[in-house]
Write a structure and sequence with these properties.
Length: about 375
């Protein structure tokens, strides 16, 4: 099926940092399936199991193992690959580990972003860089309406602060180096809500915790069953990132702009509601509420995003309903655990195609090649 993404990315060299991670591995499969020349750059494979290994993503790209904190090696990979597009997802991506290693989190997320942009600064060809930060970059005071891109950045925990720092670094490079007439770099910034989908085994995340426990017929402990999140399937923000990258090739006015990607602000669901929806697709679900005896590390209870800017500037909006998001997620894990010795590449690619068909049927502009 031909989409806008085929038109923009086919035969182009696309560098994905963090390609071994959850989002990065899905993006690698998607871009390789539409004919892009994918180059991956990551320090390691962050979890075992992982979608990167389960879907044998290493077979469809050039695989570099480099730490984004290593500015020299990062620059070498960029000079060697000469990318047309960069999607920067490499990060220490979890709140709780940021308390254990705050300096590593800050260095990876903030300095790593600066290192990447500094390497692009000396690249002598046009390049579009989509810098992925997080919805947690916002200074979250848990108000009931969605955060807009102009709201204050900050963060009470080291992870959130590191993403706010990354945003400051990105803004500095855009204003200091990439808005001069001779610059060939265009930059977009993305902030996405909580992402679920097959192949995520990160620690202290509700879906991986549930899938791991239930696959072994065990009870899962849930820390915050009444916390709400803007749950979305991993393919939703990825379609936003790809749309932003495509639009940056045509629209100079969005250069340096930030965009939220998430479900409608009213479509927040609690962890309890998420688990209840999962029961429709997985048998023998059991869980414990341990909210009263959890460790007292700061964790936001309410977080919403306003995505009007992405609709207005990029003609992007989410595709899936909450029930479809949960069904596709659980079906991926069920297929994995039932065929644990088989590659998940084809199933992952089939879900990307299913998502694209949903988008086309619902007249999403990127799926109709009509942006």
């Amino acid at each position: 099926m031909n989409t806008l993404f085929h038109t923009i990315y086919k035969n182009k060299t696309v560098l994905i940092t963090g390609h071994t991670g959850f989002k990065g591995s899905w993006l690698s499969v998607w871009l390789s399936s539409i004919g892009a020349n994918v180059v991956g750059l990551s320090l390691n494979i962050p979890t075992t199991p992982s979608n990167f290994e389960a879907s044998e993503v290493n077979k469809v790209l050039v695989d570099h193992r480099v730490d984004v904190r290593d500015s020299i090696k990062l620059r070498e990979v960029i000079q060697e690959s000469q990318p047309d597009f960069v999607f920067h997802l490499a990060a220490q991506a979890l709140v709780r580990p940021s308390y254990e290693s705050p300096l590593e989190t800050i260095a990876t997320n903030a300095l790593g972003s600066a290192n990447l942009l500094d390497a692009l600064r000396i690249l002598s060809k046009p390049v579009v860089a989509v810098m992925i930060t997080s919805d947690k970059a916002y200074d979250n005071i848990e108000w009931v309406w969605g955060y807009r891109e102009t709201d204050r950045l900050g963060g009470k925990d080291p992870y959130s602060a590191s993403k706010g720092m990354a945003e400051l670094a990105i803004h500095t490079f855009v204003e200091s180096f990439f808005k001069v007439p001779e610059s060939t770099v265009r930059v977009g910034i993305t902030r996405a809500g909580n992402v679920i989908g097959g192949g995520d085994w990160a620690v202290d995340r509700v879906v991986p915790d549930c899938m791991t426990a239930w696959s072994q017929n065990e009870v899962v402990d849930i820390r915050s069953p009444d916390s709400t999140r803007p749950w979305q399937h991993v393919l939703e923000p990825l379609s936003g990132y790809l749309t932003l990258g495509a639009e940056l090739t045509k629209k100079t006015e969005i250069h340096g702009e930030a965009y939220n990607f998430g479900p409608p602000a009213h479509q927040n669901h609690s962890v309890r509601e998420l688990i209840n929806e999962m029961t429709k697709y997985w048998d023998n679900i059991r869980w414990n509420d341990i909210s009263k005896n959890r460790e007292h590390l700061h964790e936001a209870g309410l977080l919403k995003l306003n995505c009007d800017k992405a609709l207005f500037d990029l003609n992007w909006q989410p595709t899936l309903h909450f029930s479809e998001t949960v069904r596709m997620t659980v079906e991926w894990y069920k297929n994995y655990y039932q065929n644990i010795d088989s590659s998940m590449f084809n199933f992952t690619a089939e879900q990307i195609n299913e998502y694209t068909l949903f988008a086309k049927a619902r007249h999403m502009k990127w799926a109709t090649n009509d942006l």
